[in-house]
UniProtKB/TrEMBL annotation:
GTP binds at A269, C270, G271, K272, T273, N274, R387, R418, F511, G512, E513, N514. InterPro entries: PEP_carboxykin_GTP_CS (IPR018091), PEP_carboxykinase_C (IPR013035), PEP_carboxykinase_GTP (IPR008209), PEP_carboxykinase_GTP_C (IPR035077), PEP_carboxykinase_GTP_N (IPR035078), PEP_carboxykinase_N (IPR008210). Residues 242-597 form the Phosphoenolpyruvate carboxykinase C-terminal P-loop domain. It comes from Pedosphaera parvula (strain Ellin514). One of its GO terms (molecular function) is kinase activity. This is Phosphoenolpyruvate carboxykinase [GTP]. It is found in: Cytoplasm.
Length: 602
């Protein structure tokens, strides 16, 4: 690490560092205006350079915001502990501020823009006294892609700046993409006193503006991710004829070199990162899975009539607990360098630990709160929503196409929830509209990714309940409309890795073994696998689902995982109705029709 002296030298050597580095007048005027409001002691304009990273990292370490980890084991890696009250997304403090309440719809918190601006500006006023305001320009999407968007985030958190530089293409590259245009997303992020009482994550889609105060947690504070790429993105997508989705993107390569791309929407902490980085079991010799993205997909019909997807991000903000060399080798390889670990445990030799890591727990360490922890402790050492932020270039199976401005053609869209019962392992929707219905009625148990009740099943349409930036009824309609714009629509599937038997054991081994399900899906898309019709959709025929090499797993267990229990489905239909009733006046009639069809098939 640099001494203050060396740091001074770098500063002197690079006089430009931190100085205004854009000639875009709209940006300069906007930053000045926000600075007048927040009154920081200093404005630091980020350029995304290596020397800037060195300087800001040193400052974060100096201020105790980051702890430098054991550089022999984890080069370039740092440790962060959040305020214990600030560990997850806060849906109850997240608002869509449109002119009318109807535009935000019944599934979002709504506030009138005027009133919310007033409240937020009141909170932001003078809030950066004694602090630095960082100007963080970033791209969501590869340089030069027509889908790519520019955002500028003003923040008084170095942790946010350093995380943004991992998660997005950050720095001068964004000014280059923008040129003299003024259609950038305006993001303001203020730490305030990190008090849940003064925490608001607010979106003003009509102004392309985000204001987030009182939290430094990823989904609340890294404004490019959920706020821009999903909430504002979905709003823009509806206006402009594309889709912003909470989906991973992966490429399946067959032994003959054929590549098939798949996008999958699972709710938060329900397996996207794991699926996107999956390693096929030995039985699938010559098969490879390439990661394009692990959380967000922007999709638009291409000139050849297929649906093309890009991953707007440049890094992975992944769930830490349960990540190990067996469950997710590529994630483990991705976090060995240049990674920020948040809210895991810290060992005496400055290594990190979390529940589910390979090997025995440390005899003693500091837990995510900084308290002494031993294996006898009752509390968890790592927070259940502890996370890593790692650059995607670390992933050995990163698809080169992740940087392709035109994206990848999607053959299948997969929906999936975390369901202990009711939902079979896999089925295929009969057609696009039926698939939209399957996505619209998705249910999933709540996880630690959001503050709230754990384990409760709730409706989470297309895994977008917390992320749809407008009325969910219009969103379903947009999905239906998109069918008309896509000549060769992807096939739609539903999966559930989490079904349990009467003893509470998973009925499906999951993780790498999900390749078996994926293989069937790919084969279906290519017209190579047979299927049986059920009331829910098509399911694998006995010869088309490969259980080879899966020791101790029987076809009986598979059929248990695939069971359609009619009692369960009567209950399921009632639960689906709760969401439909909420959306009643804006629900596309196609959804009601699909429901009637399902009832009659059941
Ligand atoms: P977000 O980053 O919150 O959007 O989550 P994600 O969808 O990327 O979830 P992730 O892949 O990080 O998985 C979250 C949890 O699900 C971890 O605890 C995993 O161990 C567990 N998980 C993932 N895949 C499987 C699976 O196939 N079977 C089982 N049983 N658990 C899984
Ligand atoms: C999720 O909760 O879906 C995440 C983590 O991917 S966060 O970006 O923090 O929202
Ligand atoms: Mn997510």
């Amino acid at each position: 690490l640099l001494t203050p002296n060396e740091m001074g030298n770098i500063m002197e050597a690079n006089e430009k560092m931190g100085k205004c580095n854009t000639s875009n007048r709209t940006i300069i005027a906007w930053v000045e205006e926000q600075a007048k409001l927040c009154q920081p002691d200093e404005i630091f304009w980020c350029d995304g350079s290596e020397s800037e990273k060195v300087l800001l990292t040193a400052e974060a370490v100096d201020k105790g915001i980051l702890i430098k980890l054991n550089q022999e084991k984890l080069p370039g890696c740092y440790y962060h502990r959040s305020n214990p009250n600030d560990v997850a997304r806060v849906e109850q403090c997240t608002y869509i501020c449109t002119e009318t309440r109807d535009e935000a719809g019944p599934t979002n918190n709504w506030a009138a823009p005027k009133e919310m601006y007033q409240k937020l500006l009141g909170l932001a006023r003078g809030s950066m006294h004694g602090r630095t305001m960082y100007v963080v320009p970033y791209l969501m999407g590869p340089l030069g892609s027509p889908l790519t968007k520019v955002g500028i985030e003003l923040t008084d958190s170095i942790y946010v700046v350093l995380s943004m530089r991992i998660m997005a293409r950050m720095g001068d590259v964004a000014y280059k993409h923008l040129g003299n245009r003024d259609d950038f997303n305006r993001g303001l992020h203020c730490m305030l006193d990190v008090n849940p009482e003064r925490r608001y994550i607010c979106h003003f889609p009509q102004d392309n503006t985000i204001i987030s105060v009182g939290s430094a947690y990823g989904g609340n504070a890294l404004l490019g991710k959920k706020c821009l790429a999903l909430r504002i993105g979905s709003y823009l997508g509806r206006k402009e004829g594309w889709m912003a989705e909470h989906m991973l993107i992966l490429g399946v390569e067959s032994p003959t070199g054929e590549k098939t791309y798949v996008a999958a929407a699972f709710p938060s902490a329900c397996g996207k990162t794991n699926f996107a980085m999956m390693i096929p079991p030995a039985h699938f010799k010559g098969w490879k899975i390439w990661t394009v993205g692990d959380d967000i997909a922007w999709m638009k019909p291409g000139p050849d009539g297929r649906l093309y997807a890009i991953n707007p991000e440049a890094g992975y903000f992944g769930v830490m607990p349960g990540t190990n060399y067996k469950s997710n080798l590529n994630a483990m390889k991705s976090i060995q360098k240049d990674t920020i670990y948040t809210n895991v445990a810290l060992t005496p030799d400055l290594d990190v630990w979390w529940e589910g890591k390979d090997g025995p727990p440390p005899k003693e360490c500091l837990d995510w709160r900084g308290n002494k922890w031993t294996p006898e402790s009752k509390e968890k050492a790592a927070h259940p929503n502890s996370r890593f932020a790692a650059p995607m270039i670390n992933n050995p199976m990163l698809a080169p196409e992740a940087n392709d401005p035109s994206g990848v053609p999607i053959s299948a869209i997969i929906f999936g929830g975390r369901r202990a019962d009711t939902m079979p392992l896999v089925f295929q929707a009969f057609n696009w509209i039926h698939g939209v219905y399957v996505g619209a009625t998705m249910g999933s148990e709540m996880t630690a990714a959001a503050a709230g009740t754990l384990g409760q099943v709730r409706r989470d349409p297309m895994a977008m309940l917390p992320f749809c930036g407008y009325n969910m009824g219009y969103y379903f309609h947009h999905w239906i409309i998109m069918r008309k714009l896509i000549k060769y629509p992807p096939r739609i599937f539903h999966v559930n890795w989490f079904r349990k038997d009467a003893n509470g054991e998973f009925l499906w081994p999951g993780f790498g073994e999900n390749m078996r399900v994926l293989k069937w899906i790919v084969d279906r898309c290519k017209g190579r696998a047979n299927a049986n019709e059920t009331p829910l959709g098509w399911v694998p025929g006995p010869e088309s689902f490969d259980l080879g090499g899966l020791e101790g797993y029987t076809p009986e267990k598979l059929s248990q995982a695939q069971t359609i229990n009619y009692e369960d489905w009567r209950r399921e239909l009632l639960q689906q109705d709760e969401l439909f009733m909420k959306l009643y006046s804006n629900l596309p009639k196609e959804m009601i029709f699909q429901r009637e069809l399902l009832v009659s098939r059941l």
